[in-house]
Description:
- 20% of the residues lie in helices and 28% in strands.
- The chain is an alpha+beta fold.
- The protein has a single domain, classed as 4-Layer Sandwich (L-amino peptidase D-ALA esterase/amidase).
- The strands form 5 sheets. Strands 4, 5, 6, 7, 8, 11, 14, 15, 18 and 20 form a 10-stranded mixed beta sheet that branches. A 3-stranded mixed beta sheet has the order 1-2-3.
- The model is unreliable at 1-32 (pLDDT under 50).
Amino acid sequence: MQLTRRELARFGVTGAVAGGVSLRGLPVEAAGDGAQSASTTAGAGSLTDVPGIRVGHYTDPRRPTGCTAILFDEPVTAGADYDGSAPGELLGVMLQPVSPVDRIHGILLTGGGPMGLGAVAGVVRYLESRGIGYNWGPPTVRVPIVVGAVIDDLSVGDGRIRPDPDMAVKACEAASAAPVAEGSVGAGAGATVGKIFRSRGLGGMKGGIGTVALRRGDVIVAALCVVNAAGDVLDFHTGRIVAGARAADGKAFANSAEVLQKDLEAGPSAGVLDDQPFRATTLTVVATNVALDKTSLTKLAMMVNTGAARAINPYHTQGDGDQVIALSTNRLKRDVSLTAIGSTAAQAAADAIRRGVEQATGVPGWPAVRDL
């Protein structure tokens, strides 16, 4: 039996797919042990709608944390924008336009705070064992370039439990071109939002992973976001707060932007902000099938940050480590307006951020949208 991706999403097929069912004609095996590949809900498209991209999650069953591996059929061109105050990243400097390395072989998004970046070694191991990477000279040596990006989820559950290289390998093994699972999975398992006033008794909410794809003609633009923001998450189409800091009674939203403005009026008597470095970060990966060079992708990443600012308020706080990585699979080789791609990608990112909280599952002390 064979089903299309759309049919699988409609029927709610999960990563543990029954034998005999296939994705795009390729057999899918049950992932197990916290690994997830296919989506559990019909969505708005996903990062894997861009041909040549595969995504897999590993969610730690011991506490809300995990990692998400993004792999490619062929090396992709990549650029990045690091506007956050304290980005936790690995090899991101190689994405700057001045670096001669313009193609990468994988990305790992992970929880675990700065220590979680050690899990990237698992993706390197997985790719190297398959002969994927730059030819380094010796015939048996290949060097995979894997970019790492991390969120701080150490305050959710036992922070001594963090993603490690073995978990990253399992995420790679689960990677597929199926629709990407959203919500409290992979790197989004321990994500939270609206946490800038927790020391004042204003609780936050659960974040997660969201993904969206937009197809315009033969151009495909997609975004995947790990939403772990200090600020509130908005539906930018309406301006409505979807998730964020809650009022003291827990029934309404405090509206973080308004509280911050009142703090300016209060002067020295204003309360303390939970805005320390490393505590909050939104990770965004955008991809397109349009052939773009590294400089153009760097500009694309900058434009995508404007989309994240539509969906998160406040965004780029003093403590946020926000990062955007932009990718091109280079399969559509024709002139396309970078401005048009960037505008579309910014919208995809804003909608993916909203979906990240809408699809999340609450944990003690961090309710989800569905719990309100």
